[in-house]
Design goal:
The structure holds two protein chains of two kinds.
Chain A (H helix, E strand, L loop, with lengths): L1 H27 L5 H6 L5 H11 L5 H13 L13 H36 L4 H14 L3 H15 L11 H31 L2 H9 L3 H38 L5 H11 L2 H29 L1 H6 L6
Chain B lengths: L1 H6 L3 H9 L3 H11 L1 H18 L1 H4 L2 H6 L25 H37 L1 H15 L3 H12 L3 H28 L2 H8 L4 H12 L1 H24 L11 H8 L8 H28 L5
Helix pairs in contact in B: 3-15, 4-7, 4-15, 7-8, 7-10, 7-13, 7-15, 8-10, 9-10, 10-12, 10-13, 11-12, 13-14, 13-15, 14-15
The chains are: A mainly alpha, B mainly alpha.
């Protein structure tokens, strides 16, 4: 198992490098002279040339990329064109907020989606199951930003129960988590239900029941373990989508997170900050993919057996 | 037995009874039996018709674009069923005209993704081995960036206009289509008729386009339907954060963004455009799910 983790960890490095390269290349094509953005009214030929040399913008594309990666490895994301402060500091200040929102959405999505999925998979023709299936169908089609606005209208404006913006208390986390998580919750629920439905018909479930194992243990021990694989895949795939959706959630709820920073920096044409935000989000996706792979290996005995005879 | 022989005097007539139910016909029948799928199709066709007939429903310049401050936020009336927005423009007119943009950009973006992603996917799936490995690893890199973010990056670098946005969304969906087409091609690749085509000396390009891709049609149609939904969602998401279709042009996402400030007293301003997005996405999702079930009866 340890060998597996180490191997996957090393496989992540080229992927992160490649993603950085892709993002760097796209941003390299940003039209216009960055020194215009930085210097503003103080722009002059000489000042511009001097600044370009200082920032290394006069070098070739490959050299610029090389320097960027070199700095990145040392934890240096470069300097913002607008605030002239290190991008890393801004990311450090903003990123925890993004993580909190994503974590909140994940808790909601797994905590509500999986149990409902299991229940409606075990009792597929019940009223509850039908209602949740319709809700799930509607849920996967709900735009995050619209749901966010509706939640604000209902819970902040009409009822006045929850704050509509910011992220300074637990109460202010509820609406963003619901808005961001609902879509994926519906997805997780549908997946769990359909894989549960499939597993529950298998012979070994009947065998377990015939042996006299009680219903609860059959569902939770025998069926669930086998039904979880597709759910984990969907949860894993959703982390990327959640990080994309967080841009919208942060916009709707005015949360000072990485997504907000990204949009603000795009509008201000602050390329280093845009790059920093994109890189850090891509690294998050890569890490979450890795975690999913590890969980997979932990659950699937075939992968476990391949590395260290199932004991690791 | 004898009766059958008597009944069909010519060979052509005899085979007609087997021809009657083609695979397409069977799939269609299965689709029609699925009520939610038919509902999805019905709603989507309705949206397409409304989008096409937009100029007949409301004048673009007079009702959807022209600023008419005295008429702003008057509340729903017979003249303005969905109220007017903060600039006095008819919300219904803007929604109807916005449908055109969403549909055109959505379909074009998916067509682009299908074309590029499909080409890579077909090559990867058909040749396998090293080619497959290289192409798919490259696509994996793009998959590391959530598609909204990739589209955002492209729009950020190249500017916000209709073409850039279509390309941005198209490119961000490319890796997904390459995966879909690749796996579809891989299932067909080993089947006898492909071997037969190879045996009679067809070129690889000919086999891929004429034998392999044609038979992957089903799963691809399903994915196209579902991804048009995501494309429409992405357009409005980008417009909502101000990096998509820009202000005077009516688009569902930017209508939500500009209406936000007024939603406390005028709920219609955000409810109506959002509902348009929601219903469109829902209809496409229903349609896509229905097509998937109809094309692959084993899943049911």
């Amino acid at each position: 198992m340890f060998k597996f983790v180490v191997k996957r960890l090393f496989a992540m490095i080229p992927i992160i490098l490649a993603v950085t390269f892709v993002v760097f290349t796209i941003m390299y094509f940003t039209p216009g002279d960055p020194t215009n953005v930085i210097l503003g009214n103080e722009w002059s030929e000489t000042a511009s040339a001097q600044l370009k040399a200082e920032l290394g913008l006069d070098q070739s594309f490959i050299m610029q990329f090389f320097h960027y990666v070199k700095n990145l490895v040392q934890g240096n994301f470069g300097m913002s064109y607008i605030t002239r402060a290190p991008v890393g500091d801004q990311l450090l200040a903003r990123f925890p907020n993004t993580l909190i929102v994503v974590a909140g959405a994940m808790v909601f999505c797994v905590g509500v989606g999986v149990p409902i999925g299991i229940y409606s998979g075990v009792k597929p023709y019940s009223l509850f199951s039908n209602v949740t299936m319709v809700a799930g169908l509607l849920g996967v089609s709900l735009p995050i930003f619209w749901l966010g606005l509706l939640l604000i209208l209902l819970f902040s404006v009409q009822l006045g129960w929850l704050p509509s913006s910011g992220l300074d208390s637990f109460a202010s986390l509820i609406l963003p988590s619901l808005a961001l998580g609902s879509n994926y919750m519906a997805n997780v629920m549908r997946t769990t239900r359909s894989s549960m439905l499939e597993v529950i018909r298998q012979d070994y479930i009947r065998t377990a029941k015939a042996k006299g194992v009680n219903e609860r243990n059959v569902v939770l021990k025998h069926a669930l373990q086998n039904a979880m694989m597709p759910t984990i895949t969907v949860i894993g795939m959703n982390i990327g989508a959640l990080l994309g959706g967080v841009v919208l959630t942060e916009t709707v709820f005015s949360i000072p997170g990485t997504g907000r920073l990204l949009v603000e920096s795009i509008n201000k044409r602050d390329t280093p900050t845009v790059l920093g935000c994109l890189v850090i989000m891509a690294v998050c996706v890569a890490i979450s993919n890795l975690v999913v792979d590890i969980i997979y290996a932990y659950i699937d005995p075939r992968i476990k057996a391949q590395y260290g005879g199932g004991k690791g | 037995m004898d009766e059958t022989v008597k009944k069909y005097t010519t060979r052509k007539e005899f085979f007609k009874q087997y021809k009657k139910k083609s695979r397409l016909q069977e799939t269609w029948n299965r689709f029609l039996r699925n009520k939610t799928a038919v509902l999805g199709l019905f709603i989507f066709v309705f949206i397409m018709v409304v989008a096409a007939a937009a100029p007949l429903i409301a004048n673009y310049d007079d009702e959807a674009i022209k600023i008419n401050v005295p008429a702003r936020l008057k509340g729903p009336s017979a003249e303005h069923i969905f109220d007017t927005d903060e600039m006095g423009r008819d919300i219904l007119a803007r929604i109807v005209h916005g449908a055109q943009i969403s549909l055109v950009v959505g379909f074009s973006a998916v067509a682009l993704a299908l074309f590029i992603g499909g080409a890579f996917g077909a090559i990867a799936g058909y040749y396998g081995g090293k080619t497959d490995e290289i192409i798919m690893r490259c696509m994996d890199v793009f998959l590391c960036l959530p598609d909204v973010l990739l589209a955002l990056a492209i729009v950020a670098a190249f500017g916000t206009n209709l073409v850039n946005m279509t390309v941005a969304i198209g490119l961000s969906f490319t890796p997904k289509f390459s995966r879909v087409v690749r796996s579809a091609v891989m299932t067909v690749r080993g089947i006898e008729y492909v071997e037969a085509a190879r045996a009679i000396g067809s070129t690889n390009a000919h086999i891929i386009t004429n034998h392999v891709l044609i038979n992957c049609f089903g799963p691809i149609v399903v994915q196209v339907t579902l991804y048009v939904a995501s494309a429409i969602l992405t357009i409005s998401a980008l417009s909502f954060i101000g990096l998509g279709i820009q202000a005077p042009i009516p688009e569902w996402g930017n209508m939500l963004a500009s209406g936000r400030a007024y939603m406390r007293d005028h709920a219609y301003i955000v409810v109506a455009p959002g509902l348009a997005i929601f219903v469109t996405i829902l209809s496409l999702n229903l349609l896509g799910d229905g097509l998937r079930d109809a094309l692959d009866p084993r899943l049911k």
